[in-house]
Specification:
By secondary structure, the protein is α/β, with parallel strands linked by helices. The chain is built from 9 helices and 6 strands, in the order αβαβααβαβαβαβαα. Helix 2 links the parallel strand 1 and strand 2.
Amino acid sequence: MAGTDSSASSRQSSFNSLAKDLELPLEQGCLTIVVLGASGDLAKKKTFPALYHLFEQGFLQSGEVHIVGYARTNLSDDGLRGRIRAYLKGASEEHVSEFLQLIKYVSGSYDSGEGFEKLNKEISDYEMSNNSGSSRRLFYLALPPSVYPSVCKMIRTYCMSPTSRFGWTRVIVEKPFGRDLDSAEELSSQLGELFEEDQLYRIDHYLGKELVQNLLVLRFANRLFLPLWNRDNVDNIQIVFREDFGTDGRGGYFDQYGNHP
């Protein structure tokens, strides 16, 4: 226990120092992070490990943060924790165990109110037990874009931060945002009807890939390519990446993208 208290104190000190250097406002009170699509490939390989690293570095405090996984898969809390643990290899066992105890799991559909009512109860029970008077709710959609509208309607209807408490509700949408310009604009319109712009955060992780970044530099920093690489001369751009494993349950997502024979 002493070791755990010491590591927590060290992480808190590290976070406070960084926040001061960056002149960040310090928010305190309940923070609930809901990962929708918690049993999926993206969540277990990327989202939960990223949350762990934030926890390890002191950005997420065990006394203030509550992480809830939500998906259709029938899992227990320990079942989800076991899946996540498999992707935290090489990490401190003490830190991993402490982090996993922050995680709960709720199973439910993405388009019916029953599951989101259970989700809201899980969040509300934690907020009431914390007695901080605050309610900060962050929803991370590790889901295919096709279910964004229905999920966001459920969040808006059942899971918004109560006005009686100080706080906010924010939604992060992950993955390529739509299949093309038309579908991206349609998604933006649908989400814009439910949330204010400062409540929405869009992350397209492929725009951050080094290959794409290098292409941008190669074009705009090269006088030879700058006048040639444009819509008049380039028919299409294909980005191909290879992995040493199969689609592993992701076929439904990949079927909606790319060229089909």
